[in-house]
Specification:
Blueprint (H helix, E strand, L loop, with lengths): L6 E6 L10 H9 L2 E4 L16 E4 L2 E2 L2 E2 L3 H13 L3 E6 L9 H10 L4 E4 L4 H8 L13 E5 L13 H6 L3 E5 L5 H10 L7 E6 L7 E6 L3 H7 L6 E5 L6 H4 L11 E4 L3 H13 L3 E4 L3 E5 L2 H12 L6 E4 L2 H14 L10 E4 L2 H9 L13 H12 L6 E7 L5 H8 L3 E12 L7 H8 L3 E4 L2 H9 L9 E4 L2 H9 L6 E2 L5 H15 L1
Helix pairs in contact: 2-3, 11-12, 13-14, 16-17
Amino acid sequence: MTPKTGICYLVGAGPGDPGLMTLRGKECIEMADVIVYDYLSNAEFLQWAKPDAEKIYAGKKSKDHAIPQGGINQLLVEKAKEGKIVTRLKGGDPLIFGRGGEEAEELRDAGVPFEIVPGISSSIAGPAYAGIPVTHRAHCTQLTIFTGHEDPTKEESSLDYAQIAKAPGTKVMLMGVERLPIITEAILKEGGDPALPVALVRWATTGQQRTITGTLATIADIAQRENFQAPAVAVFGTVVNCREKLNWFEERPLRGKRVVVTRTRPQASGLSRRLRELGADVLEMPTIRIEPSQGQEARDFARMVVDAHTYEWLIFTSPNAVEYFFDAFYKIRNDAREIGGARIAAVGPGTAAKLKEYHMATDLMPKKHVAEALAEAFLEDVGSIENTTMLWVRAKGARDVISTTLGKAGVILDEAIAYQTVPETGDPTGAVKRFREEGADLITFTSASTVECFLDLGLSIPEGCKIASIGPVTTEAIVENGYRPDIEAKDHDIPGLVEAVRKLAKAKG
């Protein structure tokens, strides 16, 4: 029996900033059985894919094509005809010099259903992130977009340089930065103004963004002197002068700094977003993943959740513990009041915030957000706790400081193992490979397990790479493994870690 034909989504992946991916594009990634992605689509988007989705790299750089265009067309048809949902990720917009039209024609000729999902093109996003509006009433009312990349086997250029030179308003060139001397010379020959302002924006909208400016007569020499390479967008026009006043992205404090995030994949986004907002080039490299407890530990955990209403105190020492506990709780209970009269203790604001998501208030939180301080808070703030019944919801392998301290105080303590931390051994986005090859300016560690699992990957911290620790327990693990953190967060949570990174980058100059 012939399988039902699937569908292919031709998705514009935007210019690089993950925040510029469309909601429809994200949906197409999440439902895909097969993802075919190119060089300019941010590999971090792959984290939205189903665990069993097939991921195929089809990147094309100048003179370096992972899969020729004909092979890509055939691949899309074959996978869809197997009855699969195929998402083709193309940098920018699929129809703006992205050959999406050709791929759509191949799909239609093969009888394969398709959908085109527009994306934000670097032709407008690149200049915008460089502080250059492509249109401005004081400068122009027309925008011309052309490609500088042509088939190198062609004897003559198909670009009409005379028309490009004469076209009023702003002109944006995609690709072709390696041919800049030829292109600018041709435009000048056709009457282009030598003094026309020109800007080149490399890796636009990402933490690697860099911009240089010149004129039509000088930009080629400046680019060569600066070793300015693809991928880059070129902007020709007086709007380039707006950059002096409107440059916003490149003034952020972490601009040009590559920062490694080692949190679990689901948790990395919050830290990554905050760092990107400060201009960092974030390299998400999760070294751990969280899994539910197994076997007898899982059965004991379920039983204790059922009996939660019998305890006087519930203790949570991580947001993960909160999430696993209440996910289990609401599978067997329909009313939050069924938790009974238990009071709730949280180790820090991150855990308290997660409790608030479940409409639970925190009754006890130490000023210093570590397990030792939480245990001491019971002794100092609660008073006599002898014979008090408490349930500690924790990770497998958690330090025993709470059980030891509370046990000495006479607490009747049960420990519910909600989850376990395991090493993340895969590299679906190529972040580990990129770190090995390119290094980083700064690496963040959010727990002792992220340190251990980072080193278990066979990685080392390169010389000159700064280390930021979220707190004393993490710092201890870093030191035990032969390194020394350059800074430890004053507040042992994600906002505190972000502030520490900002402070370290500022001190470094």
